[in-house]
Amino acid sequence: MKKTLLLAEALLVLAGAGCGHPDDLVSDESQETLAVAEDTLTASNCTQLQLSTAAVIAKSNDGNLPGNTLDDRLDTRWSAFGQGSWIDYDLGANRSVSGVTVAWHEGNKRATNFVVSTSLDGNNYTPVYTGKSSGTTTAAETYSFPAATARRLRITVNGNTLNDWASIAEARPCAAPVSGGTPTGTGVVWRGDFETGDRTQWSSTQMVNADRLQVVPSPAREGRYAIKVTVKQGDNPISASGNRNELVKMTNETEGNEYYYRWSTMFASDFPSAKTWQIFAQWHHTGSNGSPPVEFYVNGETLYFRVQGTTVLWTAPLVRGQWQDFIFHVKWSASASNGFVELYHNGKLVIPKRAAATMYSGQRNYLKVGLYRNSTVAPIGIVYHDGWVQGRTLQDVLPAGTSSTTLASAQ
Hints:
It contains two helices and 25 strands. The chain is mainly beta. The chain folds into two domains: 39-175, Jelly Rolls, CATH 2.60.120.260; 188-409, Jelly Rolls, CATH 2.60.120. Strands 3, 4, 5, 6, 7, 8, 9 and 10 form an eight-stranded antiparallel sheet that branches. Strands 11, 13, 14, 16, 21, 22, 23 and 25 form an eight-stranded antiparallel sheet that branches.
């Protein structure tokens, strides 16, 4: 199985994560930066299961909470003192698992003794792996075991070569492969559909107040929840250009990655009509200046999809008060000879597969969702998002009861 990126940019500085203006090639956002940690967290031979921070518990902690192991950051951790300390992950349903990938805090200074166990009921646990970390790296190490069906996975730490502290920066259970090498439980990489009832599926937020990124039961495109994004003039949570309130997901797309993304967006009935840019979804580069390599935005009464800050590939009329459904298929590359895009809008193929440069050379991408707009826009802007999912195939991201054949017939 090829390497799967779990975390490349481990530290998102909230004074950073900039975005360029869709209307301008020259940006004043030099004060926005994205700090990139030296360590990377990659999971080799692991199709990691995405869990919410609410899905993890621990026997104890010293103030470094168990949810820190799911926050896509290497500068946070769960830690507890004493042999036999454990951390336990709820997989959400019975899943077939065949490993776990762990980035140990100070893993380059000490080797940790541990046991991995699985359980179907949360009471009775079966050990499936006993071993020791390498003691040579803070990056992730994958520990594989024969496939087992489990609802919960537990890591029990029995001290390390220096002391009896248990300390884990990041961890992810690994889905077991089925015959032919396709991961069990489809090829879904990540969900950000707010069905946790909060924002924990996302890496971080850039908001002036919690009411600007509010998980709400209505209107919802699917399931129980969506997110309501509100931007008022002057909202500037990261002291940069423009006004914004955005969710950030460190999807960490790299050269050659190919994914499908699905989401739905609804613009409020009074969404402002302004002859300037209002971004609602973007894949930003890890650099600090200029327009993002991929952006979806509104200008006036028109929706736009643009790459590389200059090339508009699709437009459509802005419709308020109705959910707009998107499926975006992309191969990430800094070269148009390798990269491509494909776009479905409201069930119809509006951009057949087309060559495009979708990254900037030497950089990675990450996802920002919400509303980011020119600071000259005065009226309050409200937009809703729902159903975000990232997968490896079209079928992975389709809503339940929908098939690729249905989409094809709508073209």
